[in-house]
Amino acid sequence: MSANENRPVAIQVSGVKKMYRLGQIGGGTLQADLQSWWARVRGKEDPNTKIGEGERIKGQTFMALNGIDLTIYQGEAVGIIGSNGAGKSTLLKLLSKVTAPTEGEIDIYGRIASMLEVGTGFNGELTGRENVYMNGAILGMTKQEIDAKMEQIIEFSEVRDFIDTPVKRYSSGMFVKLAFSVAAHLDSEIMIMDEVLAVGDMAFQTKCLDKMREVATKEGRTVLYVSHNMNTIRRLCDRCIVLDKGKVVFQGDVEKAIERYISSTKEMNLVNEYSNVRERKDIDQSIIIKKTIFEKKEDYPIFYDDEKIELSIEYESTSAFDNLAFRWTIHSIDDLRAGMATTDCSIKVVPGINKTVLLVPTDWLAPGKYFVDLTAYTVDRYGNNQLHDVVNCAFTFEKIIHIDSNNKMQWHPNWWGFVMFPKIQIL
């Protein structure tokens, strides 16, 4: 029996599905609506239905959630992660009773305070103070109970000077500050947060994370938190749930959940080929990176201890250069910048297809998975850089160290960073 199973249940989700009908609201024009109607009459596919992924779209329906089973215990801080469209926001809307499930049951034991988007639950015509009273009344609190919390709410929100101003005049940041303060201080047993803290300033985000951690650990309240920022998930959550295409694919340890999520979005391939399409406007693409290949590897790009990375880069040039360089911007697998490495600005290039082989040491790199943004650039005699091509997330690799009698510690990058300095000498 796990430690969580000794706690009372806060949320029980059993076999929940959420189906949306496509093409039923309107096509935007009378012609599109008539096309959709005529297709339905004939039993044909709607020509105005958007194309989606795999089996999530069946005929005229889209399965946003497709069989969710979850148990959330009181006092837990649970993270929910997944790619865009995985079903995270839909799940939180069901838990917040914004919409109802198509199938399955949701049992909630306690009152919920939720922030699903900026301004949720606020009336723009009312002042900040009046909205606090309204939210408290919705949660079943008396005026005396709200009065007792009012000063704490105002102080935490940092909007004291505007508390008696209609909230329709608030900026998005002010909205978030007051809304979070209300959710954190009024008497709800469950807090649900959907990425809204990304709107606030950095100092306030930190304060909010500390507050959420406090209400979970000290007050025994349940926190559900959706974010694409893996560091905030690490900092706040005891457990993490990974959603993919409307299903739970993992739930458990936070680090394992993050690894599962990241590994599904960034594959480790020996050969990586790139299209000619780049979104950046600050590159001239007189050199276009076409392909990278990890040489002398037979399965996966995994490198041990002091092993060097041998990588060949194939690229096409429209001109001759004698001052080309390549830059690696190395990121941890959850998108924290680990460092940067460059070649000399001395690579000679001819018009047409070129190939350069790079040998990169890894002895300075801590164990873990990494991805690299690859840049081709030249530097003129005045020191000015000209970017020719940038491939974001060009390739992924993993560094592993052998654990022996002299090295028994398992490395934790989120605690110690990504650079392994030489051992400290004892005199």
Q: Can you describe what's shown?
A:
The longest helix has 16 residues, at 202-217. The radius of gyration is 27 Å and the shape is globular. By secondary structure, the protein is of the alpha+beta class. The model has no long low-confidence stretch (mean pLDDT 84). The protein has helices at residues 30-41, 88-95, 128-138, 143-157, 172-185, 202-217, 230-236, 254-265, 413-416; strands at residues 9-21, 57-58, 61-73, 77-81, 103-108, 112-115, 190-194, 222-226, 239-244, 247-252, 271-273, 287-294, 302-304, 309-317, 321-332, 337-342, 347-349, 352-360, 368-379, 385-400. The protein starts with 8 loop residues before the first strand and ends in an 11-residue tail after the last helix. The strands form 4 sheets. The protein has a 6-stranded mixed sheet with strand order 6-7-8-4-9-10, with helices on both faces. Strands 13, 15, 16, 17, 19 and 20 form a 6-stranded mixed sheet that branches. Helix content is 23%, strand content 34%. It is built from 9 helices and 20 strands. The protein folds into 2 domains: 4-265, P-loop containing nucleotide triphosphate hydrolases (Rossmann fold, 3-Layer(aba) Sandwich); 271-416, Distorted Sandwich (Coagulation Factor XIII, Chain A, domain 1).
Shape: globular
**CATH class designation of the largest domain:** Alpha Beta
Helix content: 10-25%
Q: Which runs of at least 5 residues are low in confidence (pLDDT < 50)?
A: none
* Number of DSSP strand runs: 20
Q: Could you say how many structural domains there are in total?
A: 2
For CATH, the homologous superfamily of the largest domain is named as: P-loop containing nucleotide triphosphate hydrolases
- Rounded average pLDDT: 84
Work out the helix count.
9
| Radius of gyration from the alpha-carbon trace, in angstroms | 27 Å
Assigned CATH architecture of the largest domain: 3-Layer(aba) Sandwich
Q: Span between N and C termini?
A: 50 Å
Structural class: alpha+beta
Oligomer: single chain
